[in-house]
UniProtKB/TrEMBL annotation:
<feature type="transmembrane region" description="Helical">
    <location>
        <begin position="198"/>
        <end position="220"/>
    </location>
</feature>
<feature type="transmembrane region" description="Helical">
    <location>
        <begin position="98"/>
        <end position="119"/>
    </location>
</feature>
<feature type="transmembrane region" description="Helical">
    <location>
        <begin position="272"/>
        <end position="292"/>
    </location>
</feature>
<feature type="transmembrane region" description="Helical">
    <location>
        <begin position="454"/>
        <end position="475"/>
    </location>
</feature>
<keyword id="KW-1003">Cell membrane</keyword>
<feature type="region of interest" description="Disordered">
    <location>
        <begin position="515"/>
        <end position="534"/>
    </location>
</feature>
<keyword id="KW-0813">Transport</keyword>
<dbReference type="Pfam" id="PF02028">
    <property type="entry name" value="BCCT"/>
</dbReference>
<keyword id="KW-0812">Transmembrane</keyword>
<feature type="transmembrane region" description="Helical">
    <location>
        <begin position="158"/>
        <end position="177"/>
    </location>
</feature>
<feature type="transmembrane region" description="Helical">
    <location>
        <begin position="413"/>
        <end position="442"/>
    </location>
</feature>
<keyword id="KW-0472">Membrane</keyword>
<keyword id="KW-1133">Transmembrane helix</keyword>
<feature type="transmembrane region" description="Helical">
    <location>
        <begin position="357"/>
        <end position="381"/>
    </location>
</feature>
<feature type="transmembrane region" description="Helical">
    <location>
        <begin position="481"/>
        <end position="501"/>
    </location>
</feature>
<feature type="transmembrane region" description="Helical">
    <location>
        <begin position="240"/>
        <end position="260"/>
    </location>
</feature>
<protein>
    <submittedName>
        <fullName>BCCT family transporter</fullName>
    </submittedName>
</protein>
Length: 534
């Protein structure tokens, strides 16, 4: 290919392994998308079958891995390593606190707060865990909402994003390993020069898992927008949703050219404003008293029984209830952890590990708790749970959301806000995802707009393809299926981050660094370079 062709793809300065990474990942995902577009029934059946197999046999692994990662993250954050500053002791924050929080929140949680905030509590209420329930004495509605808190408030927030964010921030920024890749986090324990094929495979697995995670959310979002536009407004939902995706695509391309500071940051800030408006309107027009009373009761169930619910598997019962819920959620978090964690590290330079814990865990915990309390209480309220549950059982979560809006006073106004919020989530998630996927591909902290645009087109195509799939369940299969191979690397990444943090802390304390460590390797490389210059 001529240099002009590489330029169009944004690969003119890429190495041959990086170009191979781009083409292999792109070809694999385009093949999957093409099957979904041409043979949606075939892809739906295949994805649903793979989903059942992964969660049946590996649901326990996701649950166990989540618990291990949570313990490790808490130990690092509240030990002396929590004072380490991403980028080094002299690094300055690049973004103000509101912009920082906005980017982390809108990128890290997507439209799942609205979609699963309706879908999960009602689904669990209709199909609860096998008796005896994991929490005795709790009402089924409170238990349903409490499981939602476990899965998307805490400990879910601390288990998956933060390990990758810590590892990326410590190894890539604070220690300065050079290449901006997921595999760079393993440099201290698996040298890239000795095992280049292994590092290339890690980056490929990271890209594929990231695409699976964002494609899942795009699929949820596109089907939900179609259901709202058709169910609430009686519009030709499919055609209009394609139009909305075209508009989102245009906004996305503008954001790509504007870059991180003007594009992603401003889209995230605007989305946060619309989230606040939607929740405020829901408080006014919804079953307000019931929302707050149920939310507080469910909060008590959640806080009193968090560990029990987090590790609940009930192996003596028939079926795979826990794997299909907790296992699925942890798999989704795992798929998203790669690009969200690395993106959080990117926008957190100049912040300490404890500050990053606050903005990635503590603040989002409060925000997601409030939103799920309101949304869950709304759809579980008397007069709502019946029609919403019927729509859910008949046509899935998107239809349930549309039904909830249609039976709510001023539901059409709320529906407009929901569509705007979902569109905002799509733009910010798509922006950040392609930013990090492109960065991983090229090993560049600020990847060029041309390469990002190609990855954005691929992900947008996945969102459109999802409209052709016959069932909503097929979309949710992508995360656990594509995240499973990458879970093997997560523990290694956390260990590598610990090694780097330990070496950095020892150097700061004036203690000699062990031979063979990351810092000693860097010092030796620096000495070699200096000798060559001489």
């Amino acid at each position: 290919m001529s240099r002009g062709g590489w330029y169009v793809l944004g690969l003119e300065d890429a190495t041959w392994p990086e170009r191979g990474l781009f083409f292999v990942a792109m070809a694999a995902m385009l093949s999957l998308a093409a099957v979904g577009f041409l043979r949606p029934a075939l892809l739906s059946d295949a994805l649903n079958g793979a989903f059942d197999w992964v969660l049946t046999y590996f649901g326990w692994w996701f649950i166990l891995l989540g618990f291990i990662l949570l313990v490790l993250v808490l130990c690092v954050t509240f030990s002396r390593y929590g004072r380490l500053r991403i980028g080094g002791p002299d690094a300055e924050p690049e973004f103000d606190t509101f912009s920082w929080l906005s980017m982390v929140f809108t990128v890290g949680f997507g439209a799942s707060i609205l979609i699963w905030g309706v879908g999960e509590p009602v689904s669990i209420f209709q199909n609860p865990p096998p008796k005896p329930y994991p929490v005795e004495g709790a009402s089924l509605k409170s238990l349903s909402l409490a499981f939602m808190f476990v899965h998307e408030v805490f400990p879910g927030l601390a288990m998956w994003y933060l390990p990758v964010a810590l590892a990326f921030g410590i190894v890539v920024y604070t220690e300065g390993v050079g290449e901006y890749k997921i595999s760079s986090m393993l440099t201290g324990i698996v040298p890239a020069d000795d095992y280049p094929g292994f590092h290339w495979t890690v980056d490929l697995a990271a890209i594929v898992a990231s695409i699976g995670g964002i494609a899942t959310t795009l699929g949820f979002s596109s089907q939900t927008m179609a259901a709202i536009l058709g169910g609430v407004f009686g519009l030709d939902a499919a055609v209009l949703t394609y139009g909305i995706f075209a508009l989102i695509g245009g906004v996305f391309l503008v954001d790509v050219w504007l870059g991180l500071r003007k594009g992603i940051r401003n889209a995230a800030r605007a989305t946060m404003v619309f989230i606040g408006l939607a929740m405020a309107l829901l408080v006014v027009v919804g079953p307000t008293l019931f929302m707050f009373e149920l939310g507080l009761d469910a909060t008590g169930v959640w806080l009193n029984n968090m560990v029990r619910m987090m590790l609940y598997t009930d192996p003596t019962a028939s079926g795979n209830w826990a794997a299909n819920w907790t296992g699925f959620w942890w798999a989704w978090w795992a798929a998203w952890s790669i690009f969200v964690g690395s993106f959080v590290a990117r926008v957190s330079k100049g912040r300490t590990i404890r500050e990053m814990f606050a903005v990635l865990v503590l603040a989002p915990t409060a925000l997601t708790w409030i939103q799920h309390l309101l949304v869950g209480g709304w759809v579980l309220a008397p007069g709502y749970v019946g029609p919403v549950g019927d729509a859910l059982a008949a046509n899935g979560i998107p239809a349930a959301i549309a039904r909830a809006l249609s039976v709510t006073p001023y539901g059409s106004v709320l529906a407009v806000l929901f569509v705007v919020v979902i569109a905002g989530y799509i733009v910010t998630s798509l922006d950040s995802a392609v930013f990090m996927i492109s960065a991983i591909t090229l090993g560049d902290e600020d990847p060029n707009a041309r390469n990002r645009a190609w990855w954005g087109a691929l992900l947008a195509f996945f969102g459109v393809v999802s409209l052709e799939l016959e069932s909503f369940a097929a979309i949710q299969s992508l995360s656990p299926l594509l995240a499973l191979p990458f879970t093997v690397f997560l523990l290694a990444i956390v260990y590598a981050a610990y090694v780097a943090a330990r070496d950095y802390a020892r150097e700061a304390d004036g203690v000699d660094v062990e031979p063979g460590s990351l810092l000693s390797e860097q010092s030796r490389s620096a000495d070699t370079a200096a000798s060559d210059d001489d």
